[in-house]
Amino acid sequence: MKDTEIIFPHIDEAERIRRLEPPKGKINMVLDTDTYNEVDDQFALAYTLCSSEKINLEAVYAAPFYNDRSSSPAEGMEKSYNEILNVFSLLGKSSDGMVYRGSTEFMKNPYTPCRSEAAQNLVQRVRAMKDDDEPLYVVAIGAITNVASAILLDPEIIRKIVVIWLGGHAYFWPHTKEFNLWEDIYAANVVFGCGVPLVQIPCMGVTSHLRTTIPELEFYLKGKSEVGTYLTRIVTNYTKSPYGWSKPIWDVAAIAWLVNSDWVHTGYVHSPIVTVEGTYSFSTKRHLIRCAWYLDRDPIFADMFRKLSCINV
Questions:
Q1: Strands 161-166 and 136-140, how do they pair?
Q2: Distance between CA atoms of 256 and 262, rounded to whole angstroms?
Q3: Going edge to edge, which strands form the sheet with 55-62?
Q4: 184 with 192: CB under 8 angstroms?
Q5: CA distance linking residue 103 with residue 119, whole number of Å
Q6: How much is the pLDDT for 310?
Q7: Which of 27, 50, 87 is nearest to 310 (CA)?
Q8: Exposed, middle or buried: residue 120 (CB in 10 Å: 0-12, 13-18, 19+)?
Q9: What's this model's pTM, rounded to 2 decimal places?
Q10: In the predicted model, what is the mean pLDDT of residues 276-297?
Q11: How far apart are CA 254 and CA 288, in angstroms?
Q12: In Å, how far from its chain's centre is CA 261?
């Protein structure tokens, strides 16, 4: 198959914008996460599971990653899979039938999907939806390989989903060699280019503001719940120089937009193209996406701390 043969369904711009409005009621969601990559994915998954007043979490997909915490993308995915199960266990929640292994590699070109349980499950899940169902929110907080692969396996699914991706840097940043994006630039350009309703949550310049400290976690979370104590411990162990140190909890921003969009300030922009040099290229001929430009850090952490310290949801 050549990329010129891929034809994505047309979505009217007015319809795309309508679907990108913040959801008002409870939504159905799947989460795609490289949970063992850092320490922020664990916060995002726990926050999601404790926000059942707003989010019905249907499935969790393990995403690949490759850095000093894994020997390969495949091992990164497998470690993430096990860490997802760990977070469910810490919260006393069943993960039966909810967690799926993702791709063991990144895309090698922009038109060949990486087949995996996760990508296949997303396709099957969307195909089973009725025409009048509300969209499925696909939240990705790692390399977006699984989601892009699902779209390539069945481009028609873009008609029934909204993708929220924490990836790339703010548009004013000198480059966009951000970990989630740069690991799989092909997948990023598939998602940016296919026309799926997309909310982009950039990292440096936006979610880099979403920081916490060890003393803050010890005050609000440690000893308040099993998961709270665990999250405090993994953040504490993440640094060898804790004095004056803070840690961005990047991935929580994607969940926060769904919980209360007033906390995540967004606007419409033309969907970017990621260049091989690691920069953005723009064209006004491209479709619109929604992009975050500022976060209200305090209410996001306040809501998450309350939920993770009093596990009763």
A1: parallel
A2: 9
A3: 99-100, 55-62, 27-33, 136-140, 161-166, 198-201, 288-295, 264-270
A4: no
A5: 8
A6: 78
A7: 50
A8: middle
A9: 0.96
A10: 98
A11: 19
A12: 16
Write the DSSP symbol of residue 28: E
Q: Tokens standing for 68?
A: 């000093």
Residue 121: how many CA atoms within 13 Å on its side-chain side?
Answer: 20
C-alpha separations of 140 from 32, 223, 302, 307, 311 in Å: 5, 30, 23, 22, 24
- How is residue 127 written in tokens? 């195909």
The 3-state secondary structure of 255-312, one letter per residue: HHHHHCHHHEEEEEEECCEECCCCCEECCCCCCEEEEEEEECHHHHHHHHHHHHHCCC
CA distance 29 to 43: 17
Decide if pLDDT at 274 tops 70.
yes
Domains and CATH numbers, the chain: 3-309 (3.90.245.10)
Burial of 213 (0-12, 13-18, 19+ CB in 10 A): middle
Q: Using CA atoms, how far apart are residues 73 and 79, in angstroms rounded to an integer?
A: 10
The answer to whether 108 touches 190, Cβ cutoff 8 Å, is no
pLDDT digits (tens, 9 = 90+) for 79-128: 999 999 999 999 999 999 999 999 999 999 999 999 999 999 999 999 99
pLDDT for position 104:
99
